[in-house]
Records
---
Amino acid sequence: MIKQVDIRAVEKDLMKTPKALVIKFQKWVDDIEKYGLEEVRKVRGWHDHTLKGDRAGQRAIYLNKRWRAVYVIAGGEVKIVKVIEVHPHEY
């Protein structure tokens, strides 16, 4: 089940995220607005991938080796990306 997106929680996550990664995250957002989600997902540098288990239905991108942005896609033909969280990956 996909949890409800709380924009304040995402903003709080970004405040705890290193500034260089926030800039990289904004680049990803800008690229989606400019080229569309399908094209940006093809860029290998983002390592865009589906998640499994209790996160099934969600996707993630790498901001660096440790940090991830988790998002969901909603809508029919128009792809709406909702960022769920930005966090360090637990290994």
Note: The first strand starts at residue 49 and ends at 50.
---
Amino acid sequence: MPNPALTEAVYYILLSLQEPLHGYGIIQNVDKLSGGRVRLAAGTLYGALNTLLDKGWIRALENEADSRKKEYRITEAGLDVLKAEVRRLRELLENGMRILGEEER
């Protein structure tokens, strides 16, 4: 069964975790990547992180400098899901452009 479509928040969280980041770093990176359009509240972020941990799409790393701050990183399974989502989004875009008669810019 194919993966369900990702929410924008989950998409940007997974994109952000190509390198280890702690929660606040993820919030900042998602804001930056989305041009300020997607703003994550702490509760939303940590709920999503727990779900992603449960699915095995990310893993928690121990932060040697500060044991209170967990860092997170995408797993191979998460990367596969993210790549599948990029393919799905590309298909949506290409079909929309073709049907609406718009050229790529």
Note: The chain has one domain: 8-100.
---
Amino acid sequence: MRSVKIIPVIFIAFSCLTASGQEQPNIPAGISIAIKAGNASELAKYMNSTIELLLLDKEDFYKKNVAETILKDFFNEYQTKDFTIRHQGAKNDAQYAIGNLKTEKGDFRVYFLLKKVDQELLIHQIRIEADNGR
């Protein structure tokens, strides 16, 4: 009887070990820190030379310096209080993260997509939309 109970425990333990042994997405911590601080200049360090920015009523592809200015204006208008990554994943050479941004004027859902460029993960897309309590 004891061996029957041990097998499921061993199987569960083995499953956990093999799942944790897989490569997990590793979003650079500096991205979260920059968003949490509302620091567009610091965030720009992680951007590709051109990024797709979807920010409230703006949606287009922008050069890095223009995207930085747009984000700086956003962070000036919406003073950040907190940012937390809620989910992240990866497929091939791309990684993404979804997080919650709390500001003085309301909450936002933030999505960003990173792709490898010359072995460096760079942001290719940032989406910031109002979080309507979904």
Note: Strands lie at 47-55, 58-63, 80-91, 94-103, 106-117, 120-130.
---
Amino acid sequence: MIKIVKAVKTLKNNTIFLFETQNINFDKTILITAVFHGEEPQGEYIVNEYLKLDLNGIKNKLLFVPCLNPDGKARGQRQNANGIDLNRNFPTKNWCISNRHEYFGGIAPASEIETRFMIEILENYKIDAALSIHAPFKVVNYDGPAEQLAEKISQLTGYPVKGDIGYPTPGSFGNYIGVERNIPIITLELPEDESNEELWLVNRSVLDYLAYEY
């Protein structure tokens, strides 16, 4: 059984949902998030398809945020309605004010409704690992003690492991929980040249692994 346990309205009156599997006995708690960036909607399709499945008998408790940035998704843009890149808005040690461009992290850390929604999840649950689904690089990026998990996901998907995405990410979710809280986090970058159905066929195995084996 899956239940909505938290919801919040965005600036444009869209709703962000947190779903939770209701298994009483579980080993680990895994947080799975998609659509940090509004122009990367592929992850929401995968999460929503997974939410349709019968997840009775899973080993771990799963938390799902299918779409963190519905305002950005509605506009087809990376940022939220305030023009903030949510993956640069977390209160990390390396957060800094930058010029206003597509990676603008705001005038203060955790200034955004969406960011605070994620922080509250981390305050309310003991998260053992996290999966953040992005696009379009077709790599398995990781932060914190997640190299072994990244290698496993690489085996499942055929996507290469990449410990460094290739450019600075101050205020990122990976820095916030992986580097500073030592929680394994995978940033799963999906290819942009495949259909949602094709991506589902490849990446369902990742969610199955987190649910039943990790």
Note: The longest helix spans residues 196-212.
